[in-house]
Structure formats: structure tokens, C-alpha cells
Amino acid sequence: MTRKTVRIAMNGVTGRMGHRQHLVRSILALREQGGLDLGDGTVLWPEPVLVGRREHALRALAAEHGLEHVSTDLDAVLADPAVDIYFDAQVTSAREDALKKAIAAGKHVYTEKPSATGFEGALELARLARAAGVKHGVVQDKLFLPGLRKLKRLIDGGFFGRILSVRGEFGYWVFEGDWQEAQRPSWNYRAEDGGGIVVDMFPHWEYVLHELFGRVRSVQALAATHVPQRWDERDKPYDATADDAAYGIFELDGGTIAQINSSWTVRVNRDELVEFQVDGTEGSAVAGLRNCRVQHRSTTPKPVWNPDLPVTHSFRDQWQEVPDNQGPEGFDNGFKAQWELFLKHVYADAPYRWDLLAGARGVQLAELGLKSSAEGRRIDVPEIEL
Questions:
Q1: HEC states along the chain?
Q2: Best exposed site among 29, 73, 226, 322 by fewest CB in 10 Å?
Q3: Strand pairing partners for 66?
């Protein structure tokens, strides 16, 4: 085996998602398993270069994980010919300019979503990357969740027959920050800083719907700011100017209707933080982060509406669990799985479809969702091309 060291500039890994999912559970996990085997006698050894604004935080993170390379000078890192890939997990408002610099420097780019704060900016990034001839990808991690992979297996096997509808419920209560610390950073609730649940979650729903059920053809959404005041990391009150809940209806190719509620102001009364119910002519399924349950047409009970009598059975017990079928090791971390695919795309020219154009579709849907909410009408979602 030949070991090939690849330097990856990782910007924004002092944040929660960048640190836990991308650095620790993806790149460092690849190192712990001995690197990534390309199948041709080459093993990739990822060498992260931690980039950010706070040098002390970067050095503390590097020391914690035994890493050598940190920098607060993005331009210098991008000018280094030893760096092959630029990864961005910064706040959304800082992402577009950094990605443009990386593309101009000839780096392959991989980024968290949304790829930009607006559709035109996201589309320009895709065009720039194509013109520069660099490989590019956008994180679409929900596709790699065990529950959704089981759901995809059902779809591919024809379990549902004709799919009629998809209903999604996502969210949890994010504390306001006054009497209990908030679980999310305060910028998420300021529109001027790129916050809002529509710009955060609609890009997720676009690729989930697109990949599993069909392209989104129209959107009708209502965004709301249910909690108008929150407290920041310094315990100071601030006005929440961004939406913290969104209620969307999406028409898909083929006539399937999807309804998805997204909220940071809901208390959870479901098995997982996100669940999708899919109903088809031949069967139904409910998929979450890890689990998936089904009810086939042949085993569907015959409920009768009678409010005068108590229910004597459990509706949940009438569903069957879908097995993992993944062997003793089970499903790998979704972020790590997508990192592996992107690295194989860069270094082994393996196919990869979750690129900046796919990222632009997500930004487009978020933008049109906000427009739908502001104008109170359904809006068509046009196909986009480079």
C-alpha cells in the first residue's frame, strides 16, 4: 500500500458542527481507521489544516487532537500548493467569499450548506467551480442517515407502489437563553447575520425530496418568528429578527405532495427529532434518524371513527420495524460517509452528484420559500442549469 498525504484546509471547525461532525467524526475518524483505501493500492491520509479567526481556539483544538497545522491567514493557506482541498463550515454570511477565494486558488472545495446567502451567489459558485475545473461538493448529510437509507431501500424495492404524500416533522425547543442556555448560537435568530430556519432547513428538504421522491416543482410556505426576544452568549437580550418556524407544502414531480414542518419552538412528542411519513398505494413508512417502520397494504387494519369508545389497541404496535441489514458494524456516520465519497471523487475520479449546483437548488428553494411566505402565495420552482 502507498500512503498519500492530503492536506485539507478546514475553516470553521471551532464551531459545534465543524468540530464534532466534520473534524472528529469524519477526518479524524478516517485517520483512526488507518486512512481511506482507494482500492488501487493507495491509502489517503488526511492532514487537516485548521483555519479560523481565533488563534487560541485553533491551537487548543489542535493540541486536543494532536494536530500540527493551524492558521488565521486564509489567503496564505490557499496560496500553499500543498493544500489540495478547502472545506468551509463557517457562518453562512462568511462562506461565499471564502469559497470564491478557494476556487480562484485552484482548490477543490467541499462546504456545509447553504453554500451562499442567496441563490444568485450559490449559482455563481457552481459556475466558477466548473470554469476552474475543480471538484466541488456540498454537505447533504441527511441522505446518509440510517433511517433515510432504509427508506430509500423501500423506495428502490417498489414497496410503496405509487407514492402519494410525504409528511415531515422536524424540530425541538431551543431555549431562549435567559433562564437556560440555548442549544444553538444566537446568530441563528438574526436575519441580518444569515439566520433563520428557512435558510437552514429548506436546503436540507430540497435534497431529501429531490433524491428520494422527485424534484420540487412548487413551494407554498409560511415562516414565523414565534419567540421575538432571546438572550445571546453574553447573557444579553436581543431581538430575534429571523424566522424560528416554517410550515411548507411542496409539490413534486409525479404529483407527490410533501408537507414539512420545521420548528425551533416545538416540544418533541415523537420518537426522533425528525420523522418522515410516506404513504403510498401499497404501503406506508415512518422514517427517522435511525429507525424506519412500515405498514403494508395487506396488514393495514381497518380503523373506524367512534369518539364514544376508548381506543383499546396501540396504533404504533401495528407497524413493523425495517432491519438494518448492514452487518455487525451497522451504518457509519453520515458525515464521514459523504467525506469518503468526496475524497474518492477528488483522488480516484469516482462519480459524485452532490455538487455546488445541487447546493444552489437548496438555496433557491429557501429563497422562494421566504418569498412565498412574504407574498402569501404558491410559487413555482424552475429548473436551473449552469
A1: CEEEEEEEEEECCCCHHHHHHHHHHHHHHHHHCCCEECCCCEEEEEEEEEECCCHHHHHHHHHHHCCCEEECCHHHHHHCCCEEEEEECCCHHHHHHHHHHHHHCCCEEEECCCCCCCHHHHHHHHHHHHHHCCCEEECCHHHHCHHHHHHHHHHHCCCCCCEEEEEEEEECECCCCCCCCCCCCHHHHCHHHCCCHHHHHHHHHHHHHHHHCCCEEEEEEEEECCCCEEECCCCCEEECCCCCEEEEEEEEHHHCEEEEEEECECCCCCCCCEEEEEEECCEEEEECCCCEEEEEHHHCCCCCCCCCCCCCCCCHHHCEECCCCCCCCCCCCHHHHHHHHHHHHHHHCCCCCCCHHHHHHHHHHHHHHHHHHHHCCCEECCCCCC
A2: 73
A3: none
Distances (CA, A) of 209 to 45, 217, 251, 276: 34, 11, 10, 11
User: How big is the CA angle at 108 (ends 105 and 114), to the nearest 5 degrees?
Assistant: 105
- Give yes or no for residue 243 having a pLDDT over 70: yes
The whole-angstrom separation of Cα 92 and Cα 90 is 6
User: Is-contact 227 221, C-beta < 8 A?
Assistant: no
C-alpha cell at 173: 425547543
**What pTM was computed for the model?**
0.94
List pLDDT tens digits, range 46-75.
999 999 999 999 999 999 999 999 999 999
Give the separation between CA 371 and CA 377, rounded to whole angstroms: 9
Entry field: residues in the chain: 386
Residue type, 317: D
Cell of residue 219, nine digits: 413551494
pLDDT of 321-345, one tens digit each? 999 987 666 789 999 999 999 999 9
Q: How far apart are the first and last CA of the chain?
A: 40
CA geometry: angle 138, 128, 339, nearest 5 deg: 25
Q: Do the beta carbons of residue 263 and residue 245 sit within 8 Å?
A: yes
